[in-house]
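User: ok so my PI wants both of these folded by tonight, can you help

Assistant: No problem, let's get them done. Here's the first:
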Amino acid sequence: MKKMAGALVLTFVLVFTAACSSSSSGSQESDSGEWKPDKPIEIVAPAGPGGGWDTTARMAAKVFEEEGIIQQDIGVINKPGGGGALGWSYIHSKKSPNSLFVSSPPLLLVPLNGQSQYTYEDFTPIANMIADYGAFAVRKDAKWDNLNELFDDMKKDPSSITVIGASSPGSMDHIQFVKVAKKAGVDIKKIKYVSDQDGGALTALLNGSADVYTTGVAETLEQAKAGKIKVLGVTSEERLDGDVVSTFPTAKEQGIDATFVNWRGFFGPPNMDEAALSYYEKKFKELSDSEAWAEIREKYGWKEMYMDHDEYMEFLSKEKDELQKLIDELSLGK
């Protein structure tokens, strides 16, 4: 009896220990032997509410839950600061497969500018989900009606025109404008770019403190619909679909052979376990293929741009090389 009792106690201890170990890692194996989270998942938007990262994270969480793609609870938290660097540092320190974050070109640009020690190589790219695009807007009463008129004036005196964006110098809003302006023949080193990371860029445009607003397409929709601004150009290859966005001309159709893709996808902590990576890859592919996500894309003017882990890694490497050249030309690197 004593041996049997001892064996039962040992079995209980082993089971309890295994359960605690699984719980502490935030994961467990399903009945099929596949990894799945056994704790709530958090998706970090490394910026404040309302922007592209925040919207993408919240819409993904919403569809994951409403469509039953992921059974576990999902929460979205905002970690603004440093152009994304604060959120990246948070994820890097946690190293939990239950903690993900959404990102886009700043994950390449901010480290290239020497403003963050972390780059995409310090995390695990899981899947890219969408392509968003840049938009260049002016007040409704501005004298420019297209990009060529704007850039003609900037060629004469680039510093006389104030360009404002929400990202830091050398990050996305700045670089997307620089890339198109350079192709149009503007001296990009003399462009007067002002960064307003506190959400006041649009207000500055409307009150006359700035002349041009460089931002994402989605951030211009309401004001364009209300007739308060006009969008001189967008950075997509072709015109976008939608009641408002379809009226926005591309830079390419205005004879400026330049585009800028604001890719946006999801990343995990460094050295994510292969089983966890496989789980999330499948879930994000299911999300990308869903009708509910297609409706979200249409609502915000996003294009489908799914990439799995391997495709994403190759894409990010090429993007980094291209952006490095622009950063070097602007003398904004380390």
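One down. Here's the second:
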Amino acid sequence: MLNHVLANSVVRKDVCPEDVSDYVNAHIGQHRLTTLGSGNMRSSLRYANFARLGLSHISYGGKVRVHSPDLEEVYHLQVVTSGSCTWNFDEDRLSLSAGQALMMNPHEKSDLTYSDDCQKLIVKIPESILKSACVDNGRALPRDGLRFQRQVMNLDASIAFMRLVEAVYEEASESGVDMARASGAYADLLATKLLSVFPCNLTQDRSVAGNEGALRLIRGYLQERIRDDVTVEELAGLCNVSVRSLYNIFARDVGITPKLFIKQLKLQNLHADLKQGVNARNVTEIALDYGFSHLGRFSSDYRKLFGELPSETLRRVR
């Protein structure tokens, strides 16, 4: 299963595990390797960068233990394609066999044990790509960030997702083709699919029936006035509730404040305009058009949400 991918992207082949470990530390993520097997262990690694994703296929050729102290600001999709791999978290122990996958969150420590015949795909996904997918799909980011549950997923339950992962790897192996635009679409699609396939703190709609209509009314109202300076008091009056009640609704059912919700919605629409070339004259003009008067703070907020400066988005489109 998927062991044929990245055939043209071999960076280490039939080497000792330490050689593969050195490359992983430099390009994929910091870890410490301990070999548990005996004999002449021959390891291999195939690796490629594609659409800001880091794609790898790894096998150590024997039983090893890998300690990962911190994934920094990236998520890891880890897919076992042969053998098995066991994750030892602080309080959990999960074992994955061929055809199973797990999402790992930023700043998450782990202790992994590979079986003798274990082979894995690892997709390194910057935090900004998944943040952008949340916003593009109209989902408010939780205050403590997007977090995937520690839950093993069987890929045969989502054939479309498995084929998408395979397609991303196959496209990364293409040579001599300008994939700049298409690669970005693949990354966006993969991020959106991850949010629907893997359980996370966005998966369940936490809105209760009584507030669902109010939140829908607020979103529609803001979309119609997306370039206006809409206040929280105005939204409270729209829903016929007090400002305190509105904050309680957002805290319970959205996970962020009304002010942050307004800002994220404005940034989402502005980002969509830049990507589509709509009214994309220059960054300053379009920022002021959406009501962002403090340009330094605007650029910082935009970068936190989308992983790049607005000028970089505009330059890429042009």
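The domain at 209-317 is CATH 1.10.10.60 (Arc Repressor Mutant, subunit A). The radius of gyration is 22 Å. Good luck tonight!
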